[in-house]
Amino acid sequence: MDGLVERNVEAAKEDPRSLDEVMQEIAEHKGCGTKGGSGKASCGTGAGQGDMPAEIWEKVKNHPCYSEEAHHHYARMHVAVAPACNIQCNYCNRKYDCANESRPGVVSEKLTPEQAAKKVLAVASTIPQMTVLGIAGPGDPLANPAKTFKTFELISQTAPDIKLCLSTNGLALPEHVDTIQKFNVDHVTITINMVDPEIGAKIYPWIFYNHRRIEGVEAARILSEHQLRGLEMLTERGILCKINSVMIPGINDKHLVEVNKAVKSRGAFLHNIMPLISAPEHGTVFGLTGQRGPTAQELKALQDDCEGEMNMMRHCRQCRADAVGLLGEDRSSEFTTDKIMQMDVKYDLDTRKAYQEKVEGERQAKVEAKQAELATMAGEMSDIKILVAVATKGSGRINEHFGHAKEFQIYELSTSGAKFVGHRRVDLYCQGGFGDEASLETVIRAINDCAAVFVAKIGGCPKNDLLKAGIEPVDQYAMEFIEQSAISYFKDYLQRVKSGEIEHVTRGDADIRQGALINA
Amino acid sequence: MAYKIVASQCTSCSACEAECPNVAISEKNGTFVINPKKCTECIGHFDIPQCVAVCPVDDTCIIDTSYPRYQAPA
Ligand code: SF4
Ligand code: SF4
Ligand code: SF4
Q1: What number of C-beta contacts closer than 8 Å exist between A and B?
Q2: Cβ contact (<8 Å) for B19 and A211?
Q3: Are residues A58 and A24 in the same domain?
Q4: Same domain, A153 and A302
Q5: Residue A178: its H or E element
Q6: Ligand 2 atom at minimum distance from B2 CA
Q7: Which of A93, A140, A212, A214 to mutate to test the interface with B (most CBs of B within 10 A)?
Q8: Three-class DSSP category at A330
Q9: Residue A79 domain-assigned (yes or no)
């Protein structure tokens, strides 16, 4: 690695900061932070455990699932090799993918371990950004240990540079921790929705354990015990653990603050709270009982509540399990089983390395631009905070046409800079070049809490409708870096408020899109 | 009797395949089927049929009355 990273890794060893800060600062080539941390091997590391941040940083800096910034430059893929599951969740309909890691209502192609390995190599040779392979649903990878570990074995033989990760409901985790370590799996995601079995009983109707089907509170108690023990065992062995929680209003929304404490104290390095996605047509128990998902504001409030405790992950897209590509992009149709089986795959480690070095240069340029822009805001005093939506295809630039955006990234702007706080998925607004009014409304509802939307290009009609809705369409930063532009816009915004040209208003709430990502 | 799988309800999740103590279950044309000659209703292995207990779709692994009740060898 280059000197920049090394220097910062050295610096990181000396001071106790949260992982997020460390990642941010190393990426930004900035000095030391001051905030203290706590907890073993977790996000925050206290003084004396100084080697953790560097180690964690090394592991996650190019991981698109853990760092939003990395998500602009690197891609991960999932393969569905493990369809069986050992528990039942009320938000799952197993005709579809596992709702824990993916979103309900989408189906991934099931592969054998051999097909999966070939697919991974095919994708990695075609898309050099592909650095991470995950095994998630449909089903639980550890309820299918033979298939899961066979896949890992095949991939690690040919493509040792690809990071392996897996997601599990945790029931079978304790018995597989040693194998996970043996295969050098460096990230495990455990979905933990509760630490109180009474609450668990409302989420999990049953588990299959010790050759029996166990129901109710007893089932949730066993599941919770295994999840937390598995988490402890993994962090003891230095394997990174991320926790996913599904926020279910009225069932576990308040309780997730407890969950956050419980997993943090056991060494989880990241907590990802995802909205329940629930619609009757998914055929899930929650879909049928009319259990609603949270609004964007409710989700953000909970993530903010937990953030003081630990790093929150806000960019999870609940991608379909077999998605391939950067950000919301999905190139999986290029890699169907038929196509990959015919491909003649040559795995070229050097080309991949060269590509990744180029990407590192871009990332650094982006960070420097942001720093320079931020410096010009020093001295500005204001309590104003606004949200803005950004249309991007990746690389950290405003490079997507409004009508083509499948999702918008949301940044919170304040005098301390631009902070990524989430993303909103939207239907494709522009279908074959024709604007469609109904979906424009959907887009507006999805970003209704934003003061502006940054795009590479936008047509006249949607522009007017956005203005009517009080959202300023901004295309003057087309192709520029997102954060730099956002800060520059915010400076201007403050000026305009000061001069009385515009009035700062608090925006309303926004919708979280229900249903599957368009089947690309 | 043996157990059978209602093909129209099977999600092909394969969970039953791994749990069957008699390796009676296998995949055929996209769904899973039980070989009635091998199925012992789990008698002698477990208190409850494993395929029934693990299947995510209720009433998908059901008793097939066209076969006589399994008799454990004396
Ligand atoms: S763990 Fe995943 S596959 Fe299993 S029931 Fe829950 S959501 Fe469905
Ligand atoms: S009842 Fe038992 S033996 Fe028969 S198919 Fe099911 S799991 Fe196998
Ligand atoms: S467990 Fe049920 S749904 Fe899954 S393969 Fe067996 S019969 Fe089909």
Answers
A1: 45
A2: yes
A3: no
A4: yes
A5: helix A173-182
A6: 4
A7: A212
A8: coil
A9: yes
To the question of pTM greater than 0.80 for the whole model, the response is: no
Contacts of A211 in chain B (CB under 8 A): 19, 46, 48, 50, 53
- Assign A433 a pLDDT band (cuts: 50, 70, 90): very low
- Distance separating alpha carbons of residues A455 and A391, to the nearest angstrom: 5
Of A88, A95, A143, the CB nearest to B11: A95
Same domain? For A167 and A110 the reply is yes
Number of domains in chain A: 3
Domain layout of chain B by residue ranges = 2-64
Segment A370-390, tens digit of pLDDT: 777 777 777 677 788 888 999
Res A315: pLDDT: 46
Residue A141 pLDDT exceeds 60: yes
CB contact under 8 A, B13 and A138: yes
Are A14 and A93 contained in the same domain? no
Instruction: Report how far residue A113's alpha carbon sits from residue A144's, in angstroms, rounded to the nearest whole number.
Output: 11
Comparing CB atoms, the residue among A94, A95, A211 nearest residue B46 is A211
pLDDT of residue A11: 37
- Greatest CA separation found in chain B? 37
B13, B47, B57 ranked by CB distance to A83: nearest = B13
Whether A475 is covered by a domain: the verdict is yes
Residue A224: inside a domain:
yes
The β-bridge relationship of strands A472-474 and A452-454 is parallel
For residue A263, pLDDT over 80 is answered with yes
CA of A164 to the centre of ligand 1 (A): 21
Give the residue from chain A lying closest to B9, CA to CA: A95
- CATH number of the CATH domain containing A202: 3.20.20.70
User: Do residues A24 and A45 share a domain?
Assistant: no
* CA proximity to A480, closest of A325, A374, A380, A365: A365
**CB of A93 shorter than 6 A to ligand 1:** no
Q: Does A518 reside within a domain?
A: no
- Indicate the residue of B13, B47, B53 with minimum beta-carbon distance to A139: B13
- The verdict on A230 and A249 lying in the same domain is yes
Domain range for A267 is 36-342
Q: Which of A211, A212, A215 to mutate to test the interface with B (most CBs of B within 10 A)?
A: A211
Residues A20 and A123 in one domain: no
The strand ranges marked E within A383-493 are 386-390, 407-414, 417-425, 430-431, 434-435, 452-454, 472-474
Q: Domain B2-64 is in which class?
A: alpha beta
Q: What whole-number distance in Å separates Cα of residue A114 and Cα of residue A121?
A: 11
Least confident of A270-279, A489-498, B55-64: A270-279
Q: Which two tokens stand for residue B64?
A: 């097939």
First vs last Cα of chain A: how many Å apart?
A: 36
Tokens of A190: 């455990």
Residues of B within 8 A of A88 (CB-CB) are 56
Residues with CB under 6 A from ligand 2: B 3, 19-22, 24-25, 34, 39-42, 49-51
Query: Are residues A64 and A25 both part of a single domain?
Result: no
CATH number of the domain bearing residue A411: 3.30.420.130
A319-333 pLDDT, tens digit per residue, is 444 555 555 556 666
